[in-house]
Task: structure prediction
Amino acid sequence: MSTPILSAHSLVKHFNAGGFGAARKVVRAVDDVSFELAPGETLGVVGESGCGKSTTARLLVQLLKPDSGSVRYEGKVVGPELPLKAFRSKVQMVFQDSFASLNPRMTMIDAVAFGPTVHGVSQSDAIRKAQDLLDRVGLDPARFGGRYAHELSGGQRQRVNIARALAFDPQVIVLDEAVSALDKSVEAQVLNLLMDLRRERGLTYVFISHDLNVVRHISDRVMVMYLGEVAEIGPAESLYGAPCHPYTEALLAAMPSLDPDQRTMEAPLAGDPPNPIDPPSGCRFHTRCARAFGPCSTQIPPSYTVGRSHVAACHLNSVKEHVA
Amino acid sequence: MPDTAANITELAKIERSHGYWRSVWTRFLRDKVAVCAGLVAAGLVLMAIFAPWIAPADPLDGSMIKRLSPIGTEGYPLGADELGRDMLSRLIYGARLSLFMGVVPVLIAFAIGSAIGIAAGYLGGWVNTITMRTLDVLYAFPSVLLAIAISGALGAGILNGLLSLTVVFIPPIARVAESVTTSVRKLEYIEAAQASGASSFQIVRQHVLGNVLGPIFVYATSLISVSMILAAGLSFLGLGVSPPNAEWGLMLNTLRNAIYVQPWLAALPGVMIFLTSISFNMLSDGLRSAMDVKQ
Amino acid sequence: MTSGFSQSDMSLIRVRDLSVRFAGTPPVHAVNSVSFDLAPGEVLGILGESGSGKSVTLKTLLRLLPERKATITGTVEIDGQDVLSLTGRGLADHRGGIVSMIFQDPSLALDPVYTIGQQIAESVIRHEGASKQDAMARALEMLELVRIPSAKQRLENYPHEMSGGMRQRAMIALALACRPKLLLADEPTTALDATVQIQILLLLRELQQEMGMGVIFVTHDIGVAVEVSDRLAVMYAGSFVETGSVKDVIRDARHPYSKGLLAANLVGAVPGTRLDAVPGAPPPLNALPEGCAFAPRCAVAEDLCLVSPVPLWSDGENRWARCVHAKREAARKDRMGAGN
Result:
């Protein structure tokens, strides 16, 4: 891989969940997460609730400070080597809740123009740019520019949020469940828009979603997270085709079949995901894993390279390596 | 991409949506009760402003023969008080001081309390904890006792009454400001603004203020009636406004001795206080529901 | 499978020309002359996006709509009962006795101040007049039926002491406690994680077969609908636009909206390519266009589509689509078939 445009290095983020002293509870939201993004690629991030996807996104765009670890943009550590404000214009984020992410007292044109004015663009230039962007995301600026968030539909609002992110001419956009709340037919429109923009502007995406179908469609590489850790990361094709972590297998098997002749007959996992407050020892997945063996409950699995830029953190791969 | 000239004409063409305040206004007009309350409140304010022109007599000019004339006496449509002063004129002039004592402390407390509350809410963390716990100490006293204690310590007088009422209202307003700001701060548009690289000052000015001042203001208007009643209470106790000034609370106090002689007369200042406080309360209720756009 | 039944007196549900209007200016046309049957033991999946009227249809069957605001017309018969005329005791027996409902959010159905056991027992006592002991025994039996591990201890649990998946199971146990003939499911798995969702879907499928009840399963997710349904109905802007067996609708969708939904669900899409997305958004329900409500978004719409009523293409009682093109295309296929 050439110099990654954005990379995460051993990010750790724990939240306080109440209690004092010995009874203090800690949510291990993100634990030692590292990955790299090549320019122009799309990394999909999947996992269930509490797996740390959204926290990872907020760490990546520096909305949260990591407890330890760092984020680098083009090899430069954000903060000491690259000023935060310069980083902000390079890496933007689109949130899940299209309504909450727009100021209810701002017109759409002002919402899009706000970012550039923060970075010193004149008011009239910013508004002109906002008009072009609204037009680009498929909203007629003359009709929609003067409206407020509650006067738009969910799909239209999410287009405005995308335009707002684009107003910085960013290189990377982190999309945190950005299409999950939309109706399917509208979701398809927004996915098309995202794919067009990616091609036109050479954008790099981090695409976070719980919908494996959508992630498969838009991503070059996919990262699977479980309880704050990376379970597996690899090219979409090989990860979906030949998963090397039992959790990835389970996620794929849990997808509803779209073939009435081949309905799912057995649930791949029993029970709910455990609480990230007190994650299991060793491999965090071992409590739900049908194939757990000796070392799983005690040793944290290292990252095994299982293919070209395909890595899985599962002890089973050590066995495979020996066999091979 | 179209050229710049075309873009500028485009700029002018954007149809500004009817705007937030405009839609609040139309929704407010639909609320009959709130509109009535607003008209009554506006009438009271006008009455206070134009008192010298409206009042039929001098409110300080008494006549010993006319003492405690009943309502409907010739030349004294609402009777005369214990010093024979025209009741109607005194009630009209009384609106000046009573409204002043109702509105001004709330306005000052609104300015100071919002600033404290918004700062505490936006900054969060230990700043929030220290500020809010300090205010809680003041909040722990019943407001009447606190007002009496402060004005008692400072002595009687309009200015001291004003000061004590302002201090009483800062904690509740700051508390509301803090809770509204804290809930707004968690919304994603604030995160988006942070991700844009804007400074805290820019974010508060552009994204926080507009969304929190409305609700705080509505809460503050509901305090106007409380402030009036407290001011009346202070005057009643001999703190705050002092005779011979006309002020409803003070009038209630001095007329209380006449309650067995002229009960209706003695009740008049109380009726005015009631009317004013209920109209301001209903006005603020109407404002609150009109400002809730998402309905 | 129950396709091909024709005598409507055999059916568990018979809905004819059901329309629901909500008061407003202009009024909101939430459901527009919907007709369907459901045989005992059949599972009908209603597929639609937000605002399509699928939840309103479901609530009408349980008479859960606010009576002052909603005007309901048409006939709804469940198990031979005219549901729209039920009152008082009859309505209470209908709800929870003959028909039961499960929701997306279990906290709507479970009372936070009672234990799971108490809530199930309470429902059994109310509907069957059982003794307290019998009712508790039934509660335990139900928790075991929905495969809640260590059911005996769980009886004593309050809803907040359970995980999301467990709460959903408890809600299903509560809904099925009085052996309803009909279960209405309103997006019961939407809020769940993928690995939990499939568990609940499989559980519902098993229980449905074991207890032989009819189920109407409302969802926006085609994959979920395919997992549980015998028959699918696609709903758009308050109307059923297409219905048929799951296989027919998935493999041979006739209505352009159904086709669009399938494309949006990435059925057969090549990764990274543009999707065949339906443009625009559904019309507001207080300003429905004349003719086919989908016409403004439809790629193949023509003048004929703007005329009411929209012609019906039909291939058997339970396989139809309301579309000009479906009818014409079918006619052309028939001619070609005859030519060969």
Remarks:
- Chain B has one domain: 39-290.
- Residues 1-14 of chain B have pLDDT under 50 and may be disordered.
- Chains B and C do not touch (no CB pair under 8 Å).
